[in-house]
Amino acid sequence: MRERLRIALTKGRLLEQSAELLERVGLNCGPIRSPGRRLVHALPNYPLDAVLAKAPDVITYVEHGVCDLGIVGRDTILEKGGTFYEVLDLELGVCRFALAVKEGSDFYGSYRTRRVASKYPCLTRAYFAQKGMDVDVIQIEGSVELAPILGLADAIVDIVETGATLKANGLIPIETVETVSARLIVNTASMKLYKDLILDFIERCEKGVEQA
Ligand code: PRP
């Protein structure tokens, strides 16, 4: 039995917003705001150790129970799946998955099999399967906007936050696939083992969301 919980936080844009939420309900997040190269940080005024990880790894650590809790985008949850409780929409990092094409191109205008590039191949396949449309999905690791520009794909499925990246690259969104935001996830065994600690943390997060 541990006396402290361990949470995996997604590095990058979500980290600052996660720290803001936790600070609103009294947790001192100083150590994760200036983490340096260190990856594990004990919060000084709450029984919580924070681990900083890449989004898919947040899910891996929570699934394996080495972290009790995690904060991760719904986009990663949809793509990777896994066994854990998704307990709360933290309403952080709100953005959408959009299908986008080169300005002026007609994605649905021909019968040949379309090629769609994405960092999220599973989600993209599921989206077109549900439409009953056969597409070739090409997995790209980043800067997916390049794929239609270079002629590799007819369209992309990607995260759109402000729309600036699409615009700067001559692409336009034509459909919203899904709206996404960050979620609080909990390991299934930890939920039983550390129920009181976890419920206190969830309540604080709920308050943090209300106070936003
Ligand atoms: C994400 C996404 C878009 C961009 C959207 O990329 O894949 O490229 O942000 O943001 P915007 O609508 O506000 O312009 P990210 O910065 O995570 O980098 P990546 O493309 O290399 O993965």
Question: What features would you highlight for this structure?
Answer:
212 residues, six-stranded mixed sheet, 9 helices, 34% helix
Write up this protein.
The chain has 212 residues and is an alpha/beta fold. It has nine helices and eleven strands. The strands form two sheets. The chain has a six-stranded mixed β-sheet with strand order 2-3-1-4-11-5, sandwiched between helices. Helix 1 packs across helix 9. The model has no long low-confidence stretch (mean pLDDT 96). It binds 1-O-pyrophosphono-5-O-phosphono-alpha-D-ribofuranose (PRP). 1-O-pyrophosphono-5-O-phosphono-alpha-D-ribofuranose binds next to strand 9 and helix 7.
Largest sheet: 6 strands, mixed
Structure classification: alpha/beta
Q: What's the mean pLDDT score?
A: 96
> Spans with pLDDT under 50 lasting ≥5 residues?
none
Q: What is the assembly state of the chains in this entry?
A: single chain
Query: Termini, distance in Å?
Result: 34 Å
Ligands in the structure?
1-O-pyrophosphono-5-O-phosphono-alpha-D-ribofuranose
**What's the count of strands?**
11
